[in-house]
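Loading example: each entry is read as two labelled lines plus one structure line.
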Amino acid sequence: MSPISPEAAATLPHGINLLEGRLFQANEMHEAFRILRAEAPVHWNPGTDRFNGFWSLVKYEDLLHVSRHPELFISSKGIGGSGLRYPPPGQGEGSSSIITMDPPRHVKMRRLVNKGFTPRAVLQMEPKIRAVTNTILDRVQGRDSCDFVLEVSSQLPLAVICGMMGLEEEHWPAMFDFTNQILGSGDAEYQARVAPDKVGTFEGATLTAADGNRRMNGFFRDILADRRAHPREDDLVSILVESEVDGERLTEGDIVAFCNLLVVAGNETTRNAISGGLIVLCEHPEERARLQADPSLMPSAVEEILRWTSPLHHMSREATADTEIRGQKIAAGEKVIMWYPSANRDEDIFEAPYRFDITRDPNEHLAFGIGEHFCLGAGFARAEVRIMFEELLRRFPDIQVDGLPERLRSNFINGVKHLPVRLTAAR
Amino acid sequence: MSRRVEVDQQMCEGHGKCQAAAPEVFEHRDEDDLSHVILDEVPDALTAKVDRAIRLCPRQAIRWVS
């Protein structure tokens, strides 16, 4: 990434530049956010020759305000902040998915599938989620150690979303790879398909995301052709094929973009909530012991894990008119970024926000956002995290993190790439 | 004084937070898996509960009708 100019850097509060993925990879963002909440709750983070600058929002109430006004703060000019340039080049192909769509079309498109994601739909899927969880845990049963991300945490959300879309199991590893390319494009580990001299560069990241999207979209064009030739009743792809909005069938591009979003959003974030959850439970042995002694605390523990990990670092919006936030003037066309890990540790909202408390109440965290773009998969995410920890701690009560987590270099996704764990009690 | 409140059925996704916050005013119905207002006029005594439901609604689907 090209550095910001010395003049611009001089304006940064305490030199904190939230464009830097390194800050997040090192898990040092919480201290930066604490300083910003106290001293610069709405501040301008200058851009570079490749990224726009943006207004950084770090207070809970300011995130609520922006989320409640989707016409004033729109998503269709990009949602992944200037740091990630999401959707990256090649994603759109003239179509966009609901995550980069504004009212009124957004809700019409969302309603095509949202009955499949309601609390009731999740409840009906629970036995299946538990069965899949145990199949995953069967594979590591009898071993002393494993890479928790590759073998456990990534596998459950991947299986659930791919199952809902009717994808055969042979395709799931590809969905995992494409997702890593798209959302982890800035991390050298996922840039294996670009030329060696491009790895670790801005161009390498751009090419990686475009390659991941090209492959994902190509895959779904084939799936789409298959579903049209051989209609099925109950999977999400088939529902989209049959759907109409304002009396018109969705285009191939619309459906492919929708499928891309469902797979990517469905498997990446929950993976990181589970990995981050295990890390925080191991770091707080007293809270963990309390949970293992009383599994009925699990739903509330899941909420605290979500608050604590905030799997998504940010969403960005663009102002459509001149406005003000916390007295700061925001001009039409300027970007604002909502930092979820900061809102979720806001001292004005959460008592002792740096204390991990599995019985925290109230715990109205914003890990899933709120309002128009509230995470469609929140119910599944909650169920997957809860069921995974119920089964994991029952079957592996002595599991421990056994080495340093390898974190994703990203200011967008709070990702854990690898997590060495010891599955059995140390001998 | 009393006021009216409404749930935008296009936005509601049946999370049930409003019923938990103000069961006197909101009801989750099985037939459509959505929340409904069951009280035409909300008395002042319930205003705080409804305000809480409005704030907590994941989809921000609830609003006072002026």
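Chain B touches chain A at residues 10-11, 13-16, 33, 56, 58-60 (CB under 8 Å).
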